[in-house]
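User: Is it possible to get a 3D structure for a protein together with its bound compound? The compound here is flavin-adenine dinucleotide. I've pasted both below.
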Amino acid sequence: MDVGTRLFRSALLGLAGNRVARKFSERYGMKLGASRFVAGETMEAAIEQAKRINQQGVTVTLDYLGESVSSLEEAKGCELAYLDLLQAIRASGIDGNISLKPTQFGLAINEDSCLASIRKVTKEAACLGLFVRLDMEDSPWTDATLRIVRTLKAEGYKNIGTVIQACLYRSRQDVRALSAEGINLRLVKGAYKEPPSIAIPSKRKVDANMRHLIRTRLDSGVYTAIATHDEEIIRWVKSYTRTHNIPRTAFEFQMLYGIRTPLQAALAREGYTVRSYVPFGRSWYPYFVRRLAERPANVLFIARSLFKR
Ligand code: FAD
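Assistant: Yes, that's possible. Here is the predicted structure of the complex:
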């Protein structure tokens, strides 16, 4: 990645956390082009999109957008929204599960209450035969997120997992430990702005670390979601699993709603499990800005589509 792109990406990621920009943008609804990456502002819209995606042979994980809530009342609202979402998944018959962000459940306010809230959602999901994944946010929340997952796993919940980011130096150690504990992981490169003291600064090295983590997980036999749009890595996973006799039931590919949609369907047609991450809700701004930062060309694409209106 050249210096200009790196600076641009860093500036955009800075904007993702800006509350004023967030309020301003969300007031304009999805008109800023967010609908390319967000399935809608309501649960009903997301369920409709999920049905459409399922018809392509692709399963989903639904994410009710929201993060860094500033009160426990807001966190409670998210818990209720997720409980409704679980019922809606079952009632609509879609093939899918849920992803959630711990800071949306009040992690930054009170870890115990966040744990209690996530426990309620996980328990309800278990009753309905659904899986819950805790997304991984920026590094101040890594340890607490892993603590919550380990606590719930120790309490006997088998339907819970989390995410590990290849950009962090600590991740090799985390993946080894979590694999030994049998914890279901999604592996990603990492979407947040992190200091160089803890994060690998070069994209090439992050890509190499991603492959290392994937190999460790595939060799461990513990179920793994490989979440990337990187076609070279996807090709390599297909070849590695073939030559090492790793069954397709041991892993799945995951991609984001609106990104590489034909590739998602093509992999599903080849017989791989593919899951599309389908975000919805009114708090779409930080998620949207992270998607722009991943690919600066997206900013041009959005700008062009705004001028075409
Ligand atoms: P890259 O090397 O960044 O991209 C490879 C190619 O994919 C690019 O050349 C481009 O063609 C395409 N591409 C990638 N991003 C975009 C985009 N935004 N728009 C258009 N094309 C794009 N990160 C976290 O930190 N925590 C999480 O919990 C988390 N969950 C995720 C769940 C899923 C299902 C996925 C797919 C990603 C998740 N991420 C998460 C984001 C992840 O960390 C990366 O930021 C993101 O996936 C981009 O990296 P990449 O692996 O696709 O590879």
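The chain is about 50% helix and 15% strand. The chain has one domain: 39-283.
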